[in-house]
Amino acid sequence: MPNDDAPLILVVDDSPQMRTLLCRSLHREGFRTAEAANGKQALQKACELVPSLVLMDIQMPVMDGFEAISQLRASTLTAHVPIIVVTAAARDAHDLERGLSLGADDYIVKPYNLRELIARIRGKLKVSRPEETLNRCNEQLQILARISAQLVRALSLNELSDYLLEALCQHLRADGAILMLLDSQKQPSYWRVFGKPLHHIMHLVTTWLPVYITHGEPVTLADTRLLPLEMRDAFEADAIRSGIAVPLRFQEHVTGALALASQQACRFSDDDLKLLETVASQAALAIHNAQLYGELQDHAKNLEATVRARTEELTRAQQQLMRADRLAALGTLAAGIAHEINNPLQPLLTNLELMLEDLEQGRPADRELIESAVRDVQRIKRIVSGLLDFARPARSTLTVLQISTVVHEVLALAHKQLEQARIQTRLCLEAQRYVRGDADQLKQVVLNLVINAMEAMPNGGELRLETAEQRREGTPWLRLSVVDTGVGIPPENIDQIFDPFYTTKPHGTGLGLAISHAIIAAHGGQIYAESKPGQTTFTVYLPVVEGE
Questions:
Q1: pLDDT tens per residue, range 283-342
Q2: Which of 17, 199, 331, 339 lies 20 to 30 angstroms, CA to CA, from 324?
Q3: pLDDT tens-place string over residues 11-27
Q4: Quick one: pLDDT band at residue 415, thresholds 50, 70, 90?
Q5: CB 188 within 8 A of CB 182
Q6: Would residue 315 count as lying in a domain?
Q7: Taking the C-alpha atoms of 237, 238, 242 and 246 in order, what is their torsion angle to the nearest 10 degrees?
Q8: Domain that holds residue 208
Q9: Strand, helix or coil at 540?
Q10: Other CB atoms closer than 10 Å to residue 150's CB: what's the count?
Q11: pTM score
Q12: Is there a domain that residue 302 lies in?
């Protein structure tokens, strides 16, 4: 009996006696054989078995030898298989020429010498085997190169799996393919199927395949009809006749399996199995990278969700703090209003009661009482007016202006008071850039800062007003600094000076700096205060008008 790895000769002849005679003779010479009665059967057998050589008769029913040769050469599976034409001596030489032109490698004429036929067969096999091996190696290298290039690019596990299975089905002539991954307990954790639906055998694949594959050895099913009955029924239900499976290994651990299935028995060769093992070794690394990428994406999504949830939580907390701050500000405002208005109200009420008593007794009203009452009412009016300015600033009339002009106009108004207070004024108005603002409101801010500085220097001193251009985070700003040499502001009070009704002056309303802060904020600017013993600096930043 021939060995399993002996060359396979496909004998194609419409005569059963001739086929039997040839097959017996070839068996005695150590060849394996397969038979076909016509060209159509020859194509089916050749595509299923991929023989080492074909002995082709010419005159046959259904499909003659010429057509069979033409189609064998057109198929990528059989294009490399040597073909020897066997023809009768009476045939025209034209038939031989035609057969050779279609792709036959040799011919022999009936009746032929058996020893000559065997010699021709061995000669063709000797020549074709190295060439066939080289062609298959080149083909496998091309397949590996294409698959490897795509595996490197694929980042999604599903995308990688789909491409891999489709490519394997295409290049290894499989009807279906399965990728299965195992968890740390060697149980299926992921699988992907391509090609023919394999509903009935999926249970078998996910149960018995991990048991076999975890040993690290490939699995080959040459003919599923030879399996035990319970397994055979499942394969027959899905019309699967053969299959191969190889383990996926990463860092010496079996992480899954690649399996191919075919509707034809003995579809997969040893070369197919070796190619599948090579692809599996590359796929295991690519799958590991895709899993890491997926985990990284999941981590990024979880991190993004965590950051979003934390941001929403912080936003809610900030809104709650803002509401609490507004409530506290309202409480402070209400307390300040009550205190400030209550101070002049008490003497006003007393004076009015005294005047009412005089009127009831027929005495004329005391002029001093009336004048005192008027002063108290005016004080209340100033407090309410200042409160309204703070809570509801007047509508702005915006123009493009220079702060130096505002400073000069304010100093012209306060010139006499500064002289009387023995305060020297120094100006350094270098910035010539323009700002957009309401001139009257900005004058109110500068005047308030000048008056505060003057009141901080009861024994005289120096007042400096400086302007300069300053870039903050790449944006140009105009800076106005008002610097005095007064007593300074205690560190514990510096954070409260812009709060409404906060004042250290006996007759102050505590609204001047609060109103100034609101005006500057409405102009898109900021105002800050710095103080130390002997010097206080108020700094105002306003956005510069570009192009002016």
A1: 888 888 877 877 788 887 888 888 888 888 877 765 665 455 444 444 544 555 555 566
A2: 339
A3: 999 888 988 988 998 99
A4: confident
A5: yes
A6: no
A7: -120
A8: 151-293
A9: strand
A10: 16
A11: 0.42
A12: no
